[in-house]
């Protein structure tokens, strides 16, 4: 039984693009939570799956995953994928509908084009784990009905008891005018006072923000990396010989490539050089690739020109050497 569809489903939880070599690519796109007003249904955020038949080149993701899961070689994994794709194409040529577990279905339309229908029951968004859709009961509001009832009652009362308005004679009170003017002046003064306080607060917050950023930048620049197993110091007595120096300089191998497997970054240059020598003793083509923006000397296990080779070497180094190794891509 070919379980390639199961492996594709597992990879869709972690990657946005999973290519089935020779057939097409499954793409995922994040979709926010939605509400369907016609049915009062609430749906959580999810990953929406689509299919692109133009992406058929093997990127090594699916084959490496199958080889690791079934403990087989990469070549056997590629052969297994090819057999699975061949069976899918044969079924499609016969006009059958293909069901891929937890992914969706493929079928041929009237225009003889490949159609994909994603499965809606599986949510590949790990952030929405445990969330399910639900239907809310209809909420009936009686506000408008009560307003109409009150309006009718008031109109009925006005018809029975007509309302009359009589003018009221009031004595002039000039001191109220002065009090109103004083209140206006106090209000204007208070407004400008509050505006001054607000401006001062904004300026103070901005200064504090700049100072905090500067302290964070200084902390980052002062960061150092501790070597858990430093190499012992060795004192060497060197004899200067021109021929030997000339021969050793010709043996240095130039390493090129923009895919670098990083072993660490060091504040002190001597520690970085020790790390390079340690990795070279272990058989790696280690070297320094320069200083980053924080003033740290970056050491790499090795560099590659091919992306797939770099990813394969990175997985091996993480498994056998250090899980903290990572891939840095830049033309040097």
Automatic annotation (TrEMBL):
UniProt keyword list: Membrane, Transmembrane, Transmembrane helix
A molecular function (GO) held by this record is: peptidoglycan binding
- TM spans, by residue? 175-194
Tell me the Pfam families matching this sequence: HU-CCDC81_bac_1, HU-CCDC81_bac_2, SPOR
Against SUPFAM superfamilies, the record matches this protein to:
Sporulation related repeat (SSF110997)
- Domain SPOR intervals: 253-330
Entry-linked PROSITE patterns: SPOR
Question: InterPro entries recorded for this chain?
Answer: HU-CCDC81_bac_1, HU-CCDC81_bac_2, SPOR-like_dom, SPOR-like_sf
Q: Does the keyword Hydrolase apply?
A: no
Protein name as catalogued: SPOR domain-containing protein
Q: List the source organism.
A: Aquimarina mytili
Q: What is the lineage of its organism?
A: Bacteria, Pseudomonadati, Bacteroidota, Flavobacteriia, Flavobacteriales
């Amino acid at each position: 039984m070919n379980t390639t569809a199961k492996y594709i489903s597992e990879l869709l939880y972690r990657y946005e693009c999973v290519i089935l070599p020779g057939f097409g690519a499954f793409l995922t796109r994040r979709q926010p939570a939605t509400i369907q007003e016609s049915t009062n249904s609430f749906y959580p955020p999810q990953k929406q799956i689509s299919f692109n038949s133009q992406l058929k080149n093997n990127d090594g993701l699916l084959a490496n995953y199958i080889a690791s899961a079934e403990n087989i070689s990469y070549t056997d994994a590629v052969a297994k994928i090819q057999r699975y794709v061949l069976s899918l194409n044969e079924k499609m040529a016969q006009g059958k509908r293909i069901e891929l577990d937890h992914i969706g279905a493929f079928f041929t339309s009237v225009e003889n084009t490949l159609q994909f229908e994603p499965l809606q029951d599986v949510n590949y968004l790990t952030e929405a784990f445990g969330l399910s859709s639900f239907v809310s009961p209809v909420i009936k509001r009686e506000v408008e009905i009560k307003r109409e009832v009150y309006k009718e009652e008031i109109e009925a009362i006005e018809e029975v008891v007509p309302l009359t308005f009589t003018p009221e004679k009031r004595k002039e009170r000039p001191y109220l005018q002065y009090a109103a003017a004083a209140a206006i002046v106090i209000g204007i003064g208070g407004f400008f006072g509050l505006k001054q306080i607000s401006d001062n607060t904004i300026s103070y917050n901005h200064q504090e923000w700049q100072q905090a950023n500067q302290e964070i930048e200084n902390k980052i620049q002062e960061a150092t990396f501790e070597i858990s197993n430093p190499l012992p110091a060795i004192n060497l007595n060197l004899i200067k010989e021109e021929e030997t120096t000339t021969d050793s300089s010709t043996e240095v191998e130039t390493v090129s490539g923009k895919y670098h497997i990083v072993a660490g970054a060091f504040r002190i240059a001597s520690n970085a050089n020790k790390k390079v020598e340690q990795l070279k003793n272990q058989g790696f083509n280690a070297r320094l690739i320069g200083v980053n923006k924080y003033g740290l000397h970056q050491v790499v296990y090795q560099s590659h020109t091919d992306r797939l080779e770099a990813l394969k070497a990175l997985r091996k180094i993480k498994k056998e050497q250090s899980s903290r190794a990572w891939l840095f891509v830049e033309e040097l």
